[in-house]
Write a structure and sequence with these properties.
378 residues; alpha/beta; Rossmann fold; Udp-n-acetylmuramoylalanyl-d-glutamate--2,6- Diaminopimelate Ligase, Chain: A, domain 1; six-stranded parallel sheet
Length: 378
């Protein structure tokens, strides 16, 4: 049996979608596949009520019948962290708990896919960072990273050092079109020159990067004040706390954005409607805008959402919705599966690199220079 741990240089890098998509691809090759997320990091409250939908999605997508307490044995909440700092959590007992859950889930499996929690360093307080989990479970490590600027390579190299000899390779995810050339012609050769295999470059897809206005409204318990469609995607949030003229200059430079401002700022609301990149107005404090604003927004196809919370609370909640990937579902996993098939060396990831069984009766022998990143910039 092989064990593959999917970790990342930072949170919200697509670990769930990649982990489950790889599990699906392995299952299509005839392998019996299990899943585990040792540290639950997507939480509803500080006391540890878990909101982590990843294991539940894994059960749905992979047809698992495992119990949640095995799929996610540790709820890594702020309260848990505080207790650990105070010495009230025993790292040895926690490691044994993770190991026992793993052994139960791994019975009869050809491949276990382990999803990391947060970023690769999460869990250090109890000696359960992702590299330490990999050592505990004898796992190979696939390291995910985004790429926006050259300095991101520092984070990749630091994570590679932490993972050590268990590194299978690096997978760049959600890469914008304008960043492909530099990544392909400079960064990939640089990393491979340092003996860091790059196993794929996944392009950014809007379906996987944002949240629809409709979903956002549901998560914020917002009232929609007009009949504009809610299918536009939102990826960023702007706080409307400036004057109309300066706001317009700023708003015209953005795209796929939500403007969050008080319902008592009709001047700013009108200005926002002149910016094509603003896809929705989110009005806070329960203040209803003038009817003329609502009507103008509907003519332009811009939904107007009304929430009772203040602007800061609304921004924090909205950003959390996008970060936590609340749009993730079986369709999202299917989209990632297609992306991996087209832009990653799936055989290098799912094969054992030493003539290992791929699940279809064939074996593959891979040498160090068989890693293929061709097509990553297609």
């Amino acid at each position: 049996m092989r064990t593959l741990l999917v970790t990342a240089t930072e949170a919200s890098t697509g670990k769930t979608a990649v982990a489950l998509a790889l599990a699906e691809l392995a299952a299509e090759r005839g392998l019996s596949v299990g899943y585990m997320k040792p540290k639950g990091t997507r939480l509803q409250s500080n006391v540890g009520k878990t909101l982590d939908e990843d294991p539940m999605l894994a059960r749905e997508v992979l047809g698992l019948d495992a119990e949640m307490h095995d799929l996610e044995p540790i709820v890594y909440s702020p309260t848990f962290i505080e207790q650990a700092i105070r010495g009230r959590e025993d790292p040895g007992e926690l490691r044994e708990q993770v190991r026992e859950s793993f052994d139960s889930l791994a019975e009869g499996k050809d491949l276990m896919v382990i999803e990391g929690g947060g970023k690769h360093t999460t869990g250090g307080i109890v000696d359960l960072t992702d590299p330490e989990v990999a050592d505990l479970l004898d796992a190979e490590v696939l390291l995910l990273s985004k790429y926006r600027r050259g300095g991101d390579v520092d984070d990749v190299l630091a994570a590679v050092d932490d993972v050590g000899d268990r590194l299978l390779g690096v997978l760049f995810n959600a890469v914008r079109e304008g960043d492909f050339d530099g990544l392909d012609t400079e960064v990939v050769p640089f990393l491979e020159g340092r003996d860091v295999p790059v196993l794929g470059v996944i392009p950014r897809e809007q379906q996987l990067a944002g949240v629809t206005v409709e979903d956002l409204a549901a998560e914020l318990s917002a009232e929609q004040l007009n009949d504009a469609p809610g299918d536009a995607f939102v990826e960023r949030f702007l706080v409307g706390a400036m004057s109309g003229d300066s706001a317009l200059r700023h708003l015209r430079r953005t795209k796929d954005a939500a403007l969050v401002t008080g319902g008592d700022r009709p001047d700013l609301q009108r200005v926002a409607l002149e910016a094509p990149g603003v896809k929705v107005l989110i009005l806070t404090g329960g203040f209803r805008p003038p009817g003329a604003v609502v009507g103008a927004a509907e003519e332009k196809g811009v939904p107007v959402l009304l929430v009772q919370s203040d602007t800061l609370t609304t921004i924090e909640r909205a950003e959390d919705v996008v970060r936590s990937g609340r749009t993730r579902d079986a369709e999202t996993v299917a989209a990632m599966r297609d992306l991996l098939h087209d832009h990653a060396d799936v055989e290098a990831i799912l094969g054992d690199g030493e003539g290992g069984q791929l699940g279809d009766g064939e074996t593959e022998t891979r040498t160090d220079d068989d890693t293929d990143t061709d097509g990553a910039d297609e």
